[in-house]
């Protein structure tokens, strides 16, 4: 596994030193925020979303916000860990 430090805690998987086009990032979610935004702080992305943490609405808002931030499709964002937690591991397909 090749570990890179580019604008956040990004882990890029590689096989025989080939770039796979995916990165994993750790985020902390703040549901019910007044102003939706993404802030990088201490090697962690803080994602503030308006949606409440009820019935997966905050997760949907996080996926939408990260897709817009990284300029990828929503289907290119996957929550790997932390579906019911504020701390999540996300995979982004570049």
Describe the overall structure.
Residues 1-17 have low confidence and may be disordered. A hairpin with a 3-residue loop joins strand 1 and strand 2. The chain starts with a strand and ends with a strand. Strands 1, 2, 3, 4, 5, 6 and 7 form a 7-stranded mixed β-sheet that branches. The protein contains 1 helix and 7 strands; from the N terminus they run βββββαββ. By secondary structure, the protein is mainly beta. It has a single domain (25-93), classed as Conserved Hypothetical Protein Mth637, Chain: A (2-Layer Sandwich), CATH 3.30.1200.10.
Brief overview:
The protein has 94 residues and is mainly β.
Shape: globular
Number of helices: 1
Average predicted local confidence, pLDDT = 85
CATH architecture: 2-Layer Sandwich
Q: What portion of residues is helical?
A: 10-25%
Assign the CATH class: Alpha Beta
| Proportion in β-strands | over 45%
What is the third-level CATH name, the topology? Answer: Conserved Hypothetical Protein Mth637, Chain: A
Terminal Cα span = 17 Å
Spans of at least 5 consecutive residues with low confidence: 1-17
- Computed structural class: mainly beta
Considering the protein shown, what is the CATH homologous superfamily?
Answer: YggU-like
Domain module tally:
1
- Helix and strand pattern: EEEEEHEE
| Number of E strands | 7
């Amino acid at each position: 596994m090749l570990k890179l430090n580019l604008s956040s805690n990004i882990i890029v998987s590689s096989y025989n030193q080939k770039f796979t086009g995916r990165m994993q990032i750790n985020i902390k979610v703040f549901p019910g925020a007044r102003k939706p935004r993404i802030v990088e702080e201490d090697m962690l992305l803080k994602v503030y979303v308006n949606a409440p943490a009820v019935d997966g609405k905050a997760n949907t808002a996080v996926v939408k916000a990260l897709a817009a931030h990284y300029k990828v499709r929503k289907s290119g964002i996957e929550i790997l860990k932390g579906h019911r937690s504020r701390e999540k591991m996300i995979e982004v397909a570049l």
